[in-house]
Design a protein that fits this description.
Blueprint (H helix, E strand, L loop, with lengths): L10 H8 L5 E3 L2 H15 L7 H22 L9 H28 L4 H25 L6 H25 L2 E3 L4 H18 L7 E2 L2 E2 H21 L23 H25 L19 H17 L4 H4 L1 H25 L11 H11 L6 H31 L16 E5 L2 E8 L2 E8 L4 E5 L2 E3 L22
Parallel strand pairs: 1-2
Antiparallel strand pairs: 3-4, 5-6, 6-7, 7-8, 8-9
Pfam family, one: CDP-OH_P_transf
GO cellular component, one term: endoplasmic reticulum membrane
Keywords: Lipid biosynthesis, Lipid metabolism, Membrane, Phospholipid biosynthesis, Phospholipid metabolism, Transferase, Transmembrane, Transmembrane helix
């Protein structure tokens, strides 16, 4: 394995990436309700503002507000200030909103490109780590370090599995309750901590720990997830030769009890992803988009999770228990790097390499333990964190620059004023479908030959006089099922 390649993507991969078409299905409940807010927000966004710049600004806000929580409670056992929890809730809201409108801004300005999809998912992989960590600190989950470990790695695993499924089936699938609902749930957690204080998570109601109620809700959600995702199990992959493209007692506190529900939901989701993956890919003989084994992505992520758990358990100085935030950030950035490589493999229809230089960070901790902690583990952990962060930034930067050079575009700048977008037409069942954009939002117009124009979007019937409409950022816009 070469230390650092001069170019990460070869000419064939860049060609396949330029031909990549974004495919996503979403049935999210909150997305439909939030469309008016997102459409209003993007309509107020300057046309010169690049979509990637919107995404990175949201990520920066999310990172900064979470690091404030980490500063006040690096061990996740100290009680952070209430204003810091409120600020973190605002940070997640800002990130979620900006992340939702970057695609709308891209269509509004005619600057859509495969780079936008990759950049968006890359920022999401990093944000997942910070959002999960912030939620753990807000409820003082450091009092139960093992559960905090599982909580954070559950979030990373679910995000990875979603893109693993996309690598196999060629389509990113979102359920009725998915990432948007999870983000707003975490906003709610921060607001509870801001209003009532983190100590509220250890309180009792009618002699029963509040966490018991949260567990009941989470358990019901886990059952719902299992049923909801079961309906997608018939999909197959697109590659070659089978390849890819228990109820707690009332004596436990809320911050611990609610984790049981989180684990149940995670297991249900992972189980649903695995069932879809094991059905095979969408290509020849049920393979993945890249013509590789549908199980191949499990190895790179295992090389992150397994060492993280072993090092945590074998540490004589209890490096994780004493510095959980730093530990999660270190391994979270490795997980983000591996997830980014999976997204790149999907978009370029390429095989995913098993090893990566970011794994050198965890190897430092492992080898130091093997040699009886020749260097204090805390210092090695800091060295590991610096290394993996620098490696992630280098990789993401190089990938973006290579794609920009190939597509002849800029990362954070777009042409201004934008060229007028031409409507997209398709023929279907005797109707002519016209997809237009109004203030960054899409409007599906059904024109029946010889009859008047009828404009519809999901459950909303719109007038034909340029009235604004709301829609998703994704491909399901032209799905017959979304037309009523």
């Amino acid at each position: 394995m070469q230390f650092y390649k001069d170019r990460i993507l070869n000419a064939a991969q860049l060609k396949r990436l330029s031909e990549h078409k974004y495919s996503c299905t979403s049935a999210s409940i909150l997305d439909a309700w939030l469309q008016p807010w997102w459409c209003w927000l993007v309509s107020k966004t300057p046309l010169w503002l690049a979509p990637n710049l919107i995404t990175i600004l949201g990520l920066i806000v999310n990172i900064v507000t979470t690091l404030i929580l980490v500063w006040y409670s690096p061990d996740a056992r100290q009680e952070p200030p209430r204003w810091a929890c409120a600020l973190c809730a605002l940070g997640v809201f800002v990130y979620q909103s900006l992340d939702a409108i970057d695609g709308k801004q891209a269509r509004r300005t005619g600057s859509q490109s495969p780079l936008g999809e990759l950049f968006d998912h890359g920022c999401d992989s990093i944000s997942t780590v910070f959002i999960a960590l912030g939620a753990c600190i807000a409820v003082k989950l450091g009092e139960y370090p093992t559960w905090m470990f599982f909580q954070c790695f559950c979030a990373m695993t679910l995000f990875y599995c979603a893109h693993w499924q996309a690598y196999v089936t060629g389509t990113l699938k979102m359920g009725r309750i998915d990432v948007t609902e999870a983000q707003y749930a975490i906003i709610g957690i921060h607001l509870v901590s801001a209003i009532l204080g983190p100590a509220a998570w250890t309180s009792k109601i009618l002699g029963i720990q509040c966490g018991l109620y949260a567990t009941a809700v989470s358990f019901a959600a886990a059952i719902y997830f299992t049923i909801n995702f079961a309906s997608t199990f018939r999909d197959r992959g697109c590659g070659k030769n089978g390849s890819t493209v228990a109820i707690p007692t009332v004596n436990q506190s809320l911050n611990l009890v609610s984790n049981y529900g989180v684990v149940l939901v995670t297991l249900a989701l992972v189980f649903s992803y695995v069932k879809v993956i094991m059905k095979g890919g969408v290509g020849k003989n049920g393979s993945t988009v890249a013509g590789t084994s549908i199980l191949s992505p499990v190895i790179p992520f295992s090389l992150v999770v397994v060492p993280a758990f072993i090092i945590f358990q074998k540490s004589e100085s209890h490096v994780y228990e004493n510095h959980p935030a730093l530990y999660i950030l270190a391994f979270g950035m490795v997980a983000a790097k591996v997830t980014n490589r999976l997204v790149v493999a999907h978009m370029t229809k390429s095989e995913m390499e098993y090893y990566d230089w970011s794994l050198l960070g965890p190897a430092m901790l492992f080898l130091n333990q093997y040699f009886n902690n020749a260097i204090p583990e805390y210092y090695v952990l800091w060295l590991c964190t610096v290394w993996v962060c620098a490696d992630l930034i280098r990789y993401c930067g190089q990938i973006c620059l290579e794609i920009c050079d190939h597509l002849k575009i800029r990362l954070f700048r777009i042409p201004y004023p934008p060229a007028p977008a031409s409507p997209k037409h398709t023929e279907r069942n005797g109707f002519r479908e016209l997809l237009i954009g109004i203030d960054g939002c899409d409007c599906l117009v059904l024109i029946k030959f010889g009859d008047t124009i009828v404009t519809k979007y999901n459950k909303y019937t719109l007038s034909t006089d340029s009235e604004k409409s709301e829609n998703e950022d994704s491909a399901p816009l032209l799905n017959n099922n979304s037309i009523t």
